[in-house]
Amino acid sequence: MTWQAFVSWVTSNGWNLLSVALKTVAIGAVGVLLIRLVMKALNKILEKSKLERASHSLIKTLIKTIMYVLLGLILASSLGIDVTGIVALASVATLAISLALQNMLANVIGGFTLLYTDPFNAGDYVEIAGQSGTVKDVGIAYTRLITPDNKLVFIPNSAVVAAEIVNYSSTGTRRVEVKINVSYDTDPDLVVKTLLEAAQDPRILPDPAPFATLTEYGDHAIGYVVRVWTKTDDFWDVYHKINGGIYDLFNEKGIKMTYPHVNVHLDK
Predict the structure, then answer these.
(1) In this predicted structure, what is the pLDDT of residue 108?
(2) pTM above 0.70, yes or no
(3) How far is CA 24 from CA 14, 20, 35, 137, in A?
(4) Which residues, 6 or more positions from 235, have their beta carbon under 8 angstroms from its beta carbon?
């Protein structure tokens, strides 16, 4: 095509091209605005709904992705592109991508499974596959935990679904258990009474009542345990308070804690 022919083509079709371009830009701008409005409305609906906060991120990501895909198809149609061919090509591409990204697809399916089964909520303290932390949210591919030392851990949803999940927050209360080894030279009744004395704190629940007992006769010491119940939020504070109280009271009453050792007796 010569320069003159090109200029002639642009002159004769310029207004049509400009009209299509402006129409496409207008549709795109309105579409983006509508998506933002829908997402704001969705945020309000999710906040008022009974769905747990951990699932909000997954729902919003999926809906936002679907809306942008639809907007892309509408824009392509406004440019005169055959959308039917694009959809068919996208179907084939989706199949190929799904085969190549099986792990990612498994994570997405795992996210839906977690949304349906609801094994934990945002803010719950859980243990998943040996990793403990507070649930931040469930994303489209990962569940995020915040560990007690403030690390952010990403666990694939497929691994979460397959793993054993321990939810420490679901019942609202937890049992605090402290085990201790004491010398054979100490009166067991005195040890039990002292353990119960150490288990005195307003955050400890009266029912079930605090309990202490002798548990085993070891090679080097007698084993004891003290158990109390408290609210989940108070677990660690009560645990540390009992440990500190045991140490102070044992020193006060002359009770000796012991450690693994071997006594050697020599016969003359």
Answers:
(1) 76
(2) no
(3) 15, 6, 16, 37
(4) 168, 174, 176
Return the SS3 of 211: strand
Where do the DSSP E strands lie in 89-141? Answer: 125-128, 131-138
Instruction: Tell me the backbone φ, ψ of residue 126, rounded to 5 degrees.
Output: -130, 165
Query: What are the residues whose beta carbons fall under 8 Å from the beta carbon of 210, sequence distance 6 or more?
Result: 196, 199, 204, 226, 227, 228
Residue entry with tokens 């030392």:
149
Please give the helix or strand (H or E) that residue 105 lies within, else none.
helix 102-117
60: Cβ–Cβ under 8 A, 6 or more apart, which residues? Answer: 39, 42, 43, 46
Long-range contacts of range 37-43, CB-CB < 8 Å, 24 or more positions apart?
Answer: 38/63, 38/67, 39/63, 39/64
For residue 243, the model assigns a pLDDT of 92
Residues 6+ apart with CB under 8 A from 99: none
Predicted local confidence at residue 100, as pLDDT: 46
pLDDT at residue 8, rounded to an integer: 60
DSSP string, 3-43: HHHHHHHHHHHHHHHHHHHHHHHHHHHHHHHHHHHHHHHHH
Q: Given this model, what pLDDT does residue 44 score?
A: 82
Joined together, the tokens standing for residue 12 give 């004769």
Question: Tokens in use for 37?
Answer: 């409005």
The candidate with the shortest Cα–Cα distance to 224, out of 177, 155, 170, is 177
Give residue 258's pLDDT.
81
Structure tokens belonging to residue 261: 């050792």
User: Token digits for 226?
Assistant: 């003290």
254: left (phi over 0), alpha (psi -120 to 50) or beta: left
Q: Which residues of the chain have pLDDT under 50?
A: 99-100
